[in-house]
Amino acid sequence: MANLIIKNATLPNGSVADIAIAGEQITAVGPNLTVTDATVIDATGLVALPGFVDLHTHLREPGFEGSETILTGSQSAAAGGFTAVHAMANTSPVQDTAGVVEQVRTLGLEAGYVDVVPVGAVTVGLEGKQLAELGAMASSKARVRVFSDDGKCVSDPVLMRRALEYVKAFDGVIAQHAQEPRLTEGAQMNEGKVSAELGLTGWPAVAEESIIARDVLLAEHVGSRVHICHLSTAGSVEIVRWAKAKGINVTAEVTPHHLLLTDELARSYDAVYKVNPPLRTQEDVLALRAALVDGTIDIIATDHAPHPIESKDCEWQAAAFGMLGLEIAASVAQEVLVDSGKSDWSRVAQVLSHNPAQIGRLGEQGQEIAAGSVANLTLIDPTAKRVIDGSHSKSDNNPYRGLTLPGAVAHTIYRGYQTVANGQLAETGRA
Question: Tag placement on the chain: N or C end, fewer CB within 10 Å?
C-alpha cells in the first residue's frame, strides 16, 4: 500500500496542516511535512474530516440483491465520504443469528470500500415475539453491538425491557424504530393538513413520540442504553431533551431527508417521497435542525433504503417506504450546520463520525485526525455546488434529484487506501 501525504488540509478546528499516512495509520499531522515515495494529495481549500460512520444503512444483501448489494452499497457509501456503515437486519434471511451477521461481515470485507458492521435483529425474524440470539451475535466474529428490528417497532414493552437488560452484559445498544403499530395501520404520510387535503391516511406524530417516551423510561429503569432511530417530530425532540436532562442514557439520530424535505412534497403523489417515518412539517424540520445544533440529536444517520424501480414507480398507496441517502448526507450536514452559520465543521465531524462510532463502539472509526489514528478520512470541497443527479447505488429512488446542494466529497481514504480520489470512485476496494 502506497504512503500518502495530504498537503494543506483545513482541519475541523479551522487550522491548516499536512497529514502523513503510512499503511493504515496516520503518522504525523503538522506543517510542512515530507514523506519519501508518497502519493501527494493537494488539499488546498479542502476540509479534512474523520471518515464518516453511518449507524443506519440498508444494504439489502442477503435476499434483496435486486435493490442493492453489499458491494454497490459500499461503493455508494465511499462516494458519500463514509468509511463505515452499519448494515440493518431486515434482510432475507434476517440477521438474527451469528451465521448471518458473519456472512454480512465477510461480504463487506470482500467489497473493501468501507467497514460493513452488521446490526443484529432484536427479535427472531423481526416478528416481535421472542428475542434473537443477541449474545451469540455479540460474541461472533462480527462483534455485533447494535441491535434493531428497524422497519418494525419492538412494540411489546416486556420484550423491549428484556432486550435492554440483555445487551447490558456486552455494552450493546437497542436502536428502536419508534412506531406504535396500532396508531399507524394503513398510514401513508404525516397526519396533518396535507394528508387531509390529499385524502391519504395520516401518520400521527404521537405514534413515534409515545414509543420514545416509553423506551427512555424503560432504559432508565434497567440502566441500559437506548438509541432512537430516525427522529422526525418536534415532540420527539422534546422527549429526548427531557430524558437527557434527567440523565437517561439515550442517543438519537436524524436523517438527511427529515432535515431538508417536508410533507408538502407529497402533493406531487411521487412515491419517491414516501418514507418511514414520513416527511413531516416545516415546523418539525426547524425543530430537528435546532436539536442537531444544540446536541439533543447526536448524529445524522442516512437510513439509506434502496428499492427497485417497480416498488416506487407506481401509485402512492402501493409504493414501498424509503429513499437513498448515503451520497447526500455530507451536503445536508454542511447546509444545516455550516452554511447556516449555526455551527461549524467540528460539529459535522461529531455528528457524522465521532458520535456514531462511539454509539456503535467502533474503536478504529471516528478517531481524531492525529498521529497514531487509523487513516480513515474524508476530504470535502466546501465551495462546490452540485446539482444532484445519479448515484452509485443499484437503485434510483433519490428524492434529491434536481436539487442544488453545497459541498462535494473530493477524497475518501479508508484505512489508508483511496476509495475516492478527485471525486472519482476507485474501481476496486482495498480488499
Answer: C
Amino acid of residue 106: T
pLDDT, one tens digit per residue, over 304-348 is 999 999 999 999 999 999 999 999 999 999 999 999 999 999 999
Domains of the chain: 3-47+372-425 (2.30.40.10), 51-359 (3.20.20.140)
User: From CA 36, how far away is CA 429, in angstroms rounded?
Assistant: 24
From 115, 263, 284, 303, the catalytic residue:
303
| Closest to 58 in 3D by CA, of 22, 5, 14, 94 | 94
When computed from its CA atoms, the radius of gyration of the chain, rounded to whole angstroms, is 21
CB 281 within 8 A of CB 192: yes
Measured distance CA(324)–CA(329) in Å, rounded: 10
- DSSP lists the bridge partners of residue 408 as 381
- Give the whole-angstrom CA distance, residue 124 versus residue 122: 7
227: β partners: 175, 251
C-alpha cell of 118?
452488521
Q: How far is CA 84 from the centre of its chain?
A: 10
Render pLDDT for 187-208 as a digit per residue (tens, 0 to 9). 999 999 999 999 999 999 999 9
Q: In the prediction, which pLDDT does 140 show?
A: 97
Secondary element (H or E) of residue 320: none
Look up 303 and say whether it is catalytic: yes
Strand pairing of 377-387 and 404-414?
antiparallel
- Assigned C-alpha cell, 142: 462480527
